[in-house]
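Q: What structure does this chain adopt?
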Amino acid sequence: MELKILSVNISKEKGTIKNPVEEITLNHHGVMDDAHAGPWHRQVSLLGKESIDRFSQEAGRPIAPGEFAENITTEGLELVKTSPLDRFSGENVELEITQIGKSCHGSACAIFREVGNCVMPKEGIFARVIRQGSLKPGDVLTYHPRRFRFHVVTLSDRASKGIYADRSGPRIIELLNEHYNEQPRDIEVSHTVIPDDPSSLSVLIEKTTYDEVDVIITTGGTGIGPRDVTVETVRPMLDKEIPGIMEMIRVKYGKDKPNALLSRGVAGLIGETLIYTLPGSVKAVNEYMGEILKTLEHLIYMRHGLDAH
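A:
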């Protein structure tokens, strides 16, 4: 999908209307000579003509490019339907979306005082510069949605031999699909069934993290049986552990079902990949995924240096 640049705009002060210019230069801090440029995640602001036209009808007057303090006025895509980590690329530049909307400062903002309202907090988006270059009206950017990649790993001696069907791995995949069907985000999920073998697991994790998969979710091997080796294999591989989520799940469900406290599952970061180790039952998968999915996007954004608060 392509995005046409209608106007490029600059202001010297924050909170003021931006003025159209013939061309802007994008560097590692954002738009050169613009007040919002800096070493942060909201370097460049974009607003679509589609949003401007809707507000113009409500306001009863035409809205000029830059009046809502956007650096880049576009046409061809509902920007508010994009997501953080999606990208726009052109012949000279590449931008990565970092935030959808922002806080509105109301009457403290010069734009609000002059226009009477502002559409940026709801439908404007922000980006950081990935590839430096220049942009001018008439240029075209190509939209690249960011697809989250998951790898589900079932650890089970019997399932790997076909003695019984794996149910927990497919249930994780089902829950992931249900969750992301309700969001503007495509996902890709792969699934591997392996025996309860530390060498097989460590090799698979190393390959998956090398391939820069976003999230690994294992199921099985978190108990204290002689073949329960998942935790012993994964924990030494972690660069950063995230203990709170697993502790909270154990306590939450352990209040009524003490056996839930016996799971030793861990979560953390290996390189750029998040990993969660879940118990092997479908019931436990439902409980764990119900909590993990509440914070998963936030963790992915944090991993990429985005302030999602």
